[in-house]
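tmp note - Response regulator
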Amino acid sequence: MSLGQELAPHLPFLRRYSRALTGSQTHGDAFVRATLETIVASPEEFPRDVDARLGLYRTFHAIWSSANIEEGEEPTTDLAGAEGIAHARLSRITPLSRQALLLTSLEGFSSEDAGYLISASAEDVESLVAEAMAEIERQTHADVLIIEDEPIIAMDIESIVRDLGHNVTGVAVTRDEAVAQARKSPPGLVLADIQLADDSSGIDAVKDILSEFSVPVIFITAFPERLLTGARPEPTFLITKPFQRSTVKAAISQALFFDAATVPAG
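out:
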């Protein structure tokens, strides 16, 4: 099997990670392209002492580390919108802790493997994750609309959202209900399933909402690779079903991290 064949199944999930880390499909996918270009240019330097997924993420991190601000640096002042907000918050939370959080909670790497990727010990990774969660949760607060037709899953998501200190404005089970609730109480964050109760689409519901409101969205699906091809406008934040509570918390925190509408809690 060629190296390209080994890496192909892991590319959708690297896109998910890169988008979550940058808060942008465009910038996230650019880092993935740079990673692949680096591998193609120097395949002999690709880490072969670990499995293909670890080697892929390791190469990505080498590029990410060389392109981003170092801990303690002041954020640049010529950034606008989501990137400017994110860089301002980076002055209060280290990039390394955000990476540790997303690698373990969103991507499912063990503390040992995450440590390999960011050049830290497993114990350091666990400390970084705790630091990231505490800091990001303190900085953000939002009104959240949940679009989910499975009652048990909806209750679980609502519990997670409230545990993070956010307010749930409503739980919708159809496209029309979601749009109506968004108009009644404009959300600061939307968590949306793909397939809804009346066979309507959560994607269509979100499109309707985004046509009227600017709000970050996290999609929930059992088939994330279908929405992570890099070939068209796609979700920046995506959670795989079945999900862990820590995964939802990490995605919520990161989505709000890049959103101008969120405000410091308390």
